[in-house]
Amino acid sequence: MAAVVELVAGSYEQVAFGYRVKTDEEEWISKADFTHHAHTASISAVAASERFVVTGSKDETIQLYDMKKRIEHGVLLHHDGTITCLEFYGTSHLLSGGEDGLLCVWSTKKWECLKSIKAHKGHVTSLSVHPSGKLALSVGTDKTLRTWNLINGRSAFIKNIKQNAHIVRWSPDGNKYVVVVDDTVNIYDLETASVTGTITNPKRISSIKFLNNSILAVAGDDEILRLCELGKEKSVCEFKAHETRVKAVDSFDMEDYCVVVTASNDGFIKMWKLLLKEELDPPTLLGEVNTTARLTCLAVWKPSSVQQITEEPAAQATTSEELAQELSKTKRVRITMEEVILEDEIPRMPVFLILTRWWRVSVYVKKTNSLTGFSVLSVSSSVLVMAVDWIGFCYAVLVSAGGVTGYVKAGSTASLAAGLLFGLLAAAGAYLASQNPKNVWLSLGTSGSLTVVMGLRFVNSWKFMPAGFMALASGMMVVKIITGMLKTPHKSS
């Protein structure tokens, strides 16, 4: 009988690793539980709740895993850029941030996006949820620290900082928070929102973790892990954790001690036993595992009510290459999404599948049993949010067909070339409008030019087909675009 503890790590190799740890022995043993080729680009973030583990990637997707049912649960797609940070609040909500500047709040019940907030003008680099669940902090590349009221989804406070911060974390009691800028940890008091102390690390800081309200574990671009006391504003214990730089640090509590988990570029995940007392002694190594991959992020899955499980035969771990070969058989996953966009934020887009971005659709159609150790059950949910300018694409086909018709009937090479050229421009314009309703200038220029050209031809010939028909269709397209521009909401002043 052993307590359930799962170490989940992401890597540059696009693979998520899961290791089950036996915690009832003197020397902890980690066994491979799953190895999953989760993404089409390197994994940039991972988070765990009591039931779910989620991974975010540079491929702009968030993968979901149900750790209790032991199935791949689906994919979330809303961000337009790298997923930079993920954090659960309890078992009910997930927050995500990305390079598109968005901060999204997801319900874990139906995996709906409850709010999508334009949090920063640049990238969102880090976020942290207050223990009460009512506030969240975010930092970004616009040199601001923002406090968010999660009740109404609005910005509660904005603080300008001199440099771009890349990490922000609340303390466990919620009375203070820390902001990391390069090699410096700035300690803030909640009531005054001012810096009360500063801790400097010899190297750029890559990851931090509160072990309790006063001890902060700091990992940097070297092999040393430092345990810093906020009251003394300095490192009180440090030790060599890995042979190369430490990329991520996490922790969990046992009955009478704390377990610090570290991951490194050298591929090792290590577990350290630390007694949290007045005078900290260097921790002792409980166990380690070599993933042979370049690790980027780390999370510990440990249910709050620790389960006891019977020993099961370990599933045979597979390599990422074997899993990649299994992706040929597909199964579509999809859920609906309710999006609440603030009135002073980005414009709302209709919810459709954009067929032209086939490379992103491919993310959704993966074989559900590609996760070794997880049963083949129905994949329950993912999000697909894309806007499609169907009228624009139909107009592009019409223009191209007109050019081909002119060539077939009259042998006009000029009509064929013009039809294909303007059809291509119209299709490109429709694609741009699908990505952003404000990107209508190519469509407007194409349809406007054709309105003038075909209108002049109609005046000279007074033949409705094809000149008059094309002029009418192009004119209607111009009216449609201008009407859409007038309806598109703008930022409030």
Automatic annotation (TrEMBL):
SMART domains for this protein: WD40
Compartment(s): Membrane; Nucleus, Nucleolus
Primary location group: membrane
Start and stop residues of the WD repeats: 36-68, 76-116, 117-158
InterPro entries: PAK1-Kinase_Regulator (IPR051959), TMEM14 (IPR005349), WD40_repeat_CS (IPR019775), WD40_rpt (IPR001680)
GO MF entry, a single one: kinase activity
Membrane association type: Multi-pass membrane protein
Biological process per Gene Ontology, one example term: ribosome biogenesis
Transmembrane recorded as keyword: yes
Entry's transmembrane regions: 374-398, 410-433, 464-483
Pfam families: Tmemb_14, WD40
Entry keywords, A to Z: Kinase, Membrane, Nucleus, Repeat, Ribosome biogenesis, Signal transduction inhibitor, Transferase, Transmembrane, Transmembrane helix, WD repeat
One GO CC term, this protein: membrane
Cited PANTHER family: P21-ACTIVATED PROTEIN KINASE-INTERACTING PROTEIN 1, PAK1 INTERACTING PROTEIN 1
Family stated for the protein in its record: Belongs to the TMEM14 family.
Protein name stated in the entry: P21-activated protein kinase-interacting protein 1
Natural source organism: Solea senegalensis (Senegalese sole)
